[in-house]
Amino acid sequence: MKVLVINAGSSSCKYQLLEMDDRSVLCSGLAERISQEGGRLTHKIAPDTDKEEKLVREASFPTHVEAMELVIALLTDPQKGVIKDKSEIYAIGHRVLHGGEAVSQPVRVDERIKGIIRECFPLGPLHNPANLMGIEVAEKLFPGVPNVAVFDTEFGMGMPKEAYMYALPYGLYEELKIRRYGFHGTSHKYIAHKTAEYLGKPLKDLRSITMHLGNGSSMSCVKNGKCFDTSMGLTPLEGLIMGTRCGSIDPAIVPFVMEKKGLSPAEADTLMNKKSGLLGLCGYTDMRDVHAQVDKGDERAALALAMLVRSIKKTLGAYLALLEGKADALVFTAGIGENDDIVRAQVCAGMEAFGIKLDQKENSTRKPGARTISAPESRIPVLVIPTNEELQIALATVEVLG
């Protein structure tokens, strides 16, 4: 049973074709610069294996349709293809950012669901329009193949009301559904399941804290296997300092800067989402560059690193309090979480009083798969577990379709 997973952006489209019988990845790829000059499609056959083969195609993609047509051509290529015909694809799973309160579970796409995604454009202006576009392109190019929408907000919808409400006039929630939704839900859900599996615990008994750290970062507090709290809010802007996002700030800063700098709401949104975070502090978004600059004595890079670690640590402390100090594990995942031993070490430094102590050798050693990086005497295990959002979307797609 083959499932195609699509993550459509405004000018890009990521995809992965999985064989669900053994959960192997047949191929994956990324189409870039759609509707722009210099389009490129990078296609990997048997990615992350010793048989990996990469194909790069330079082409013009006026729309997502042309990009996906090239993907289909590569999937079914007589020499390099991984399937003979696109009819072999059983279903298509789509990552969708926001479903509001109307959708709390993965769901088969129909006109009602597309309408809900469209209604949530104001809540996810950068993602939802592109996600809907990806669905409509799939419907056109794969007629008759079922499409399933898997929402980034799904995991956070399990929060109790005192966790997701803002202390604003209640009517704003009733009228505009202003509340905390949480994002990276596919990753947080996947990691919760893998953490329980790694620890040999039933998911319903799991109490853990997941740190999804990448260019976009978020944390989740898991209690009884469900999301008890999460760091992102109405949009993915709230919470931790990120690559280009400011994270949580005093709300009064926004109107103050708008007035002083003469910014429109759209310009203020761009400032906070695309020009802030690590980029705004030191000019870099990639942590490898930040570390390199720190090593050169760059004070602003050192400040950015210190602020990032502090924002993670503050949230970690809050979640330990919510779990009454009884956490089964702390889990690092995503690009920074899985690969940056410096950030992991600094986040856990000085946490011995909370029962957290790293094994510095294990922390600095690269190993594949899930692993423990805490010292034997650490009361709370510290884990590194690679996330796999595409597999989680494919699993959800199969489950929805029975």
UniProtKB/TrEMBL annotation:
EC numbers: 2.7.2.1
GO terms, molecular function: acetate kinase activity; ATP binding; magnesium ion binding
Keyword terms, alphabetized: ATP-binding, Cytoplasm, Kinase, Magnesium, Metal-binding, Nucleotide-binding, Transferase
Binding site for ATP: 14, 212-216, 286-288, 335-339
Similarity comment text for this entry: Belongs to the acetokinase family.
HAMAP family named among the record's database cross-references: Acetate_kinase
Family annotation (NCBIfam families): ackA
Stated name of the protein: Acetate kinase
